[in-house]
Amino acid sequence: MYLAIQAVRQGALISVQLLCRVAKIPRSSYYKWLNRKPSLRELENEQLAQAMLVLHEEVRGIFGYRRMALHLRRMRKQKLNKKRVQRLMRIEGIQSVIRRKKKKYTPSTPQHTAENLLARKFHAETPNEKWLTDVTEFKYGSQKAYLSAVLDLHDNTIVSHVLGHSNNNNLVFETVETALQTTPDRKPMLHSDRGFQYTSSKFKELFGAKLTQSMSRVGKCIDNGPMESFWGTLKSERYYLNVYNTYDELKRDIDDYIHFYNYERLQAKLNGLSPMEFRTKAV
């Protein structure tokens, strides 16, 4: 109410006495409010709000209040209640721009299948113990591109990723081979859906001795839940917010986002660390 009186008074030649009479408040109360000094809490909230606006702009508006709170705690080195952050974001009109789209699935005829060894146990004690992998589709201009990636369940790090023009064996084989090169002394479990690349005889021939295969059950995308979650995060926090006219534009932005995801995007379930920070501490 006091702010409204102040705003109207500044914009028009209307007396404070008349405005207070309309608002049904004593004129003395308005002047008491006008001359008061802001509390330390209010000053701190103003600083927080400014930090939020800057961070919101830097990350292109992708943070909701939970992730905003994580990053503000790191930046300001202080404890912050996420409900306080949510309230200040609402006051400042800061809102996540995330949108989500559903994924389409294409059935395939497998040459080789594996049991669901992962069995939705989405936790790994050490790096390179359990990997997830999948391929997802993107559009640029009137054409399509396909992204293959390997995610480590220990720390949610994207171990390797390859963008290509075709959803073929070479795309997947290059992704897996690149991931294996980062850990030559381990034999990780690799969980995937039953896409034609993972069920092919060639995949078994190339990687059968280097990893243990696990596969989702037919029609059960939740069996590969964390991988699906990453695709949703990548698309909602970067891809859906932009229009790509060329393959190079798309590739540059995907590479940039995955670097941001691995090294800068803090996660509550990783004790407020980024995936690479958590991975480095484990090593």
Automatic annotation (TrEMBL):
Transmembrane spans: none
One Pfam family, short name: rve
One Gene Ontology term of the molecular function aspect: nucleic acid binding
InterPro entries named in the record: HTH-like_dom, Integrase_cat-core, RNaseH-like_sf, RNaseH_sf, Transpos_IS3, Transposase_IS3/IS150/IS904
GO biological process terms on file: DNA integration
The Integrase catalytic domain, residue ranges: 123-283
SUPFAM superfamilies from the UniProt entry: Ribonuclease H-like (SSF53098)
Record-linked PANTHER family: TRANSPOSASE INSF FOR INSERTION SEQUENCE IS3B-RELATED, TRANSPOSASE INSO FOR INSERTION SEQUENCE ELEMENT IS911B-RELATED
Task of the protein: Involved in the transposition of the insertion sequence.
Identification of the protein by name: IS3 family transposase
Source organism (scientific name): Paenibacillus ginsengarvi
